[in-house]
């Protein structure tokens, strides 16, 4: 097979796969814009469905709550992941062969397995129905992966750049922020996007710990869909509203996300 024919078949296969993946997305968008309650596609696009969903579900309040939680988790998670990954990947922590597996153990614990004792413990501390409590849980569950991810990224950097900087008198923190971080931006962007997506899409934790005015967007969407279970067009519009921040963030950072994922595949 010639190179040209191989390229042609590659594009054909990729186009078919893209259509298969995008077909459900297009159907969902068509349902959200449909004037028909059953969500059947129509040439008459009903943009007012989004306004109705936004107003009736009170998304302005719930999405603000979700945004506060998500931004706090992302900022704290990135800082802790950078510091932890730098300590394990570059500085060399005392007893790291014991501590690092313990951190990885946090990735294997299911939230469903600890949610009951966690709820009673946080209730004793006054952190139920409190944004701080949910933020702390998300950070605690996300940092193990963050340290694992950033440790691999730090170890992929040439060791010589740190040795040269150390010989020039650079402190560990100076090496981290001036040398390592600029070279690890794709990996950092990837972790930011993953952390944002995981936190924003959380439903179970928010449902258990937050109530009333502290309702997050995903919980508000669940309540809204319970009210309009027979109106597929409004349910689809509400789903697109809640998914919009993650989709926008992915479109903006997709190149950095892909390069970060590829960088994470480099062996330590």
TrEMBL record:
Residues 63-253 form the ABC transmembrane type-1 domain. It is found in: Cell membrane. InterPro entries: MetI-like, MetI-like_sf. One of its GO terms (cellular component) is plasma membrane. It comes from the Bacteria. The chain crosses the membrane at residues 12-33, 67-91, 98-120, 132-154, 175-200, 232-253. PROSITE patterns: ABC_TM1. It is a multi-pass membrane protein. Keywords: Cell membrane, Membrane, Transmembrane, Transmembrane helix, Transport. GO terms for biological process: transmembrane transport. Belongs to the binding-protein-dependent transport system permease family. This is Carbohydrate ABC transporter permease. It comes from Microbacterium rhizomatis.
């Amino acid at each position: 097979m010639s190179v040209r024919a191989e390229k042609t078949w590659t594009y054909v296969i990729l186009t078919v796969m893209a259509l298969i993946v995008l077909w459900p997305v297009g159907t969902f968008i068509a349902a959200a814009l449909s004037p028909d309650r059953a969500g059947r596609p129509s040439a008459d696009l009903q943009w007012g469905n989004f306004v109705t969903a936004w107003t009736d579900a009170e998304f302005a309040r719930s999405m603000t709550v979700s945004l506060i939680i998500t931004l706090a988790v992302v900022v704290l998670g990135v800082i802790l992941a950078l510091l932890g990954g730098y300590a394990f990947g570059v500085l060399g922590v005392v007893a790291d062969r014991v501590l690092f597996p313990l951190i990885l153990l946090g990735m294997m614990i299911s939230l469903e397995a600890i949610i009951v004792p966690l709820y009673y413990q946080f209730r004793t501390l006054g952190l139920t129905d409190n944004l701080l409590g949910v933020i702390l849980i998300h950070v605690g569950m996300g940092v193990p992966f963050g340290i694992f991810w950033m440790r691999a990224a730090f170890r992929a950097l040439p060791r010589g750049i740190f040795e040269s900087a150390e010989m020039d008198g650079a402190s560990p923190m100076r090496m981290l922020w001036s040398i390592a971080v600029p070279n690890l931006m794709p990996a950092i962007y990837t972790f930011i996007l993953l952390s944002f997506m995981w936190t924003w899409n959380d439903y179970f934790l928010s449902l258990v710990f937050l109530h009333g005015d502290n309702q997050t967007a995903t919980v508000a969407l669940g309540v809204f869909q319970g009210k309009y279970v027979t109106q597929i067009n409004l349910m689809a519009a509400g789903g697109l509203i809640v998914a919009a921040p993650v989709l926008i963030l992915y479109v903006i950072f997709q190149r950095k996300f892909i390069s970060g994922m590829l960088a994470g595949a480099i062996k330590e």
